[in-house]
Design a protein that fits this description.
By secondary structure, the chain is an alpha+beta fold. It is built from nine helices and five strands. The longest helix is centred in the C-terminal third of the chain and has 19 residues. Bound molecules: zinc ion. InterPro entries: Ada-like_dom_sf, Ada_DNA_repair_Zn-bd, Homeodomain-like_sf, HTH_AraC, HTH_AraC-typ_CS, Me-P-triester_DNA_alkyl-Trfase.
């Protein structure tokens, strides 16, 4: 469980053991445990009160902390929904959490609903806040990342268009080609040929 914490804190005993009792409190959103511990999720880097009604994480990804300070020191961010530090997370930080998640997981199927559930907020609020901060919607941002990586693959590898479209999280090849053309003015094959000629 050492990857939950910073090197700096590795020797301390800030981190608590997960027990069946704590796990039960987490999955039943038991508010009576709220002053006893906090739980953090490694994959999203967000931490919550036991009572948080966000979706239940995988048990192996959960770290337990005695207080919010320790979770913050270990580089986790407070959940926007249950506000474990009892302060509102600034929108820019919330959007940063989601942007990081997209950057790491763009190869998977990502919907606004899924992102909202991971980020502990409503899809509507996520859409609006993300656009306010980044100037584009989460779906536009996902597309942008996918096309950026696709361009790199087209130039730097000889992978087929089908392989690249699957790799960047758009398994529907015709859709990938249409989207690519719409955003760049060229089909993926044209783009690759043009860039190769430039070399
Ligand atoms: Zn929460």
């Amino acid at each position: 469980m050492t990857d939950c914490i910073n090197i700096r804190f590795q020797d301390s005993d800030d981190q608590e053991m997960m027990t069946d009792e704590k796990w039960q409190a987490i999955i039943s959103n038991d508010a009576s445990y709220n002053d006893q511990f906090f739980y953090a999720v490694k994959t999203t880097r967000i931490f919550c009160k036991p009572s948080c009604k966000s979706r239940i994480p995988k048990k192996e990804n959960v770290c337990i902390f005695q207080n919010a300070e320790q979770a913050l020191h270990a580089n986790f961010r407070p959940c926007k929904r249950c506000k474990p530090t009892n302060e509102k997370l600034p929108d820019s930080e919330w959007v940063a959490v989601i942007t990081e998640y997209i950057d790491k997981n763009f190869t998977e199927k990502l919907t606004l609903e899924k992102l909202a559930s991971i980020a502990h907020g409503s899809p509507y609020h996520l859409h609006r806040t993300f656009k306010k901060i980044k100037g584009m919607t989460p779906v536009e941002y996902i597309q942008k990342i996918r096309l950026k990586i696709a361009k790199e693959y087209l130039i730097e590898t000889n992978k087929s268009i089908a392989d690249i479209s699957t790799y960047v999280g758009i398994p529907n090849k015709p859709y990938f080609i249409t989207l690519f053309k719409e955003k760049t003015g060229h089909t993926p094959t044209q783009y690759r040929q043009l860039r190769k000629m430039e070399e």
